[in-house]
Write a structure and sequence with these properties.
The protein is an alpha+beta fold and 381 residues long. The protein has five helices and 15 strands. The strands form three sheets. The protein has an eight-stranded antiparallel β-barrel with strand order 2-3-4-5-6-7-8-9. The chain has a five-stranded mixed sheet with strand order 11-12-15-13-14. Helix 5 (324-345) links the parallel strand 13 (311-318) and strand 14 (353-360). The radius of gyration is 32 Å and the shape is elongated.
């Protein structure tokens, strides 16, 4: 069994390593969902088909990654406790009780489709997940004190998800499952055990709503790394064709009002500016640094740590769309976003950095869409 599990983990890791997408995880408040629905369940001992009990359920979950989620799952089982039982629906005090049992647990949900086929940046129309959870079960057994009917339970099953619409905000989830009473009285295995005599087998259908996240989607946003690397490589090639160094001479002359024997000195300050290769690309109208662009910022941070005396100017740009005033503010915000990440995330001293928005440009790159960037200039004297 251990070898099978190890092979499963290794295969999953290999597939994940081959994935060519970067997933933007977002904030803790992102990627939550809620589901409500119901179905039917029946004892798993198969001694008799009835009773088939109606079930109502609700779940609240969070996607940790496209392939993994945690959810709190609750269900109420309605109806009687057994066929031909004259005390159906009555508790230990002889009072009528509409419930047969309750379940509350914490489930892990592993999306097998994304795990083995890779996440492509948007949920597929149909996906398959495996569900496993632990929790609390309470049975309303006739003529038995409620206090003795609290048990540890487990849930195993599958989720078949039908993701609807272009936004994929809604999902119809079909879940066949088994709910195991691990402390079934008289359990022949002793202690905790998966004994079918204490299990319920059922099927639920739920409507799931995925809340919108900070990326303005209802699911994880992903980027094609290979495509982005190709664009970055092309941008760097275009930058390499441009002059890499600019020497500026600023004469500073002393102005004298009378003739002196000593000649006037001319002081020349020479500033060398070097274009650094990485660029940070922004989406139209945005100043947020996408996950796929963070490696470019990390490269600059590494460069500055390897060259402790270096100073870098960050210049933000906007493409020609929109009005000039808005684009100027957008270019300022893009340069400031890169500056903040270098200072706050990579702990580069603020005194070594400057940032400025240069507004609209169509001169950096031939493609206007590529001019929504921040560039880096190393300055030295």
């Amino acid at each position: 069994m251990k070898k099978i599990l190890l092979s499963f983990v290794m295969a999953a890791s290999a597939l994940a390593a081959q994935a060519q997408t970067a997933v933007e995880t977002g904030k803790f408040t992102d990627n939550w969902y809620i589901g409500i629905g119901g179905g039917v369940a029946t004892p798993m001992d198969f001694n008799k088909i009835f009773p088939v009990n109606p079930v109502g359920g609700i779940s609240v979950g969070k996607q940790i990654s496209p392939a993994f989620a945690l959810e709190v799952d609750g269900a109420a089982f309605f109806g009687s406790h057994g066929a031909y039982n004259s005390r159906w629906g009555k508790n230990a005090n002889g009072n009528f009780n509409a419930f047969r049992g309750l379940w509350l647990g914490l489930n892990s949900v592993t999306n097998l489709t994304d795990l083995f086929m890779g996440y492509k940046g948007i949920p597929r129309n149909v996906e398959l997940s495996i569900v496993a959870g632990m929790g609390w079960e309470h049975a309303f057994t006739p003529l038995v004190s409620d206090k003795s009917n609290n048990t540890i339970a487990a849930k195993t099953g599958f989720d078949i998800d039908f993701n609807l619409g272009e936004s994929k905000a809604s999902t119809i989830r079909v879940q066949p499952y088994i709910l195991w009473d691990l402390q079934k009285p008289g359990n022949s295995y002793g202690g905790l055990a998966f004994n079918r005599d204490g299990a319920q087998i059922g099927i639920d259908v739920k409507y799931i709503y995925h809340f919108k996240n900070a990326q303005d989607t209802h699911y994880f946003k992903a980027y094609d790394i290979a495509a982005m690397n190709a664009i970055i490589a092309r941008l760097n090639t275009e930058l390499a064709k441009k002059p890499t160094e600019v020497v500026k001479e600023v004469p500073v002359e002393k102005i004298v009002e009378k003739v002196v024997e000593k000649p006037v000195e001319v002081v020349k300050t020479i500033t060398k500016e070097t274009q650094l290769a990485p660029v940070v690309i922004f989406q139209l109208g945005k100043s947020t640094i996408d996950a796929s662009q963070k490696p470019s910022v990390a490269m600059i941070a590494t460069y500055m740590k390897n060259h402790p005396t270096s100073k870098v100017a960050i210049y933000g740009y906007a493409s020609p769309e929109g009005n000039a005033e808005l684009n100027q503010k957008l270019s300022d915000a893009r340069a400031k976003a890169v500056y903040d990440m270098l200072v706050n995330t990579y702990k580069i001293a603020p005194s070594r950095l400057t940032h400025k928005g240069l507004g609209v440009t169509d001169e950096l790159f031939d493609e206007n869409d590529w001019n929504r960037v921040a560039t880096f200039i190393e300055q030295s004297k």
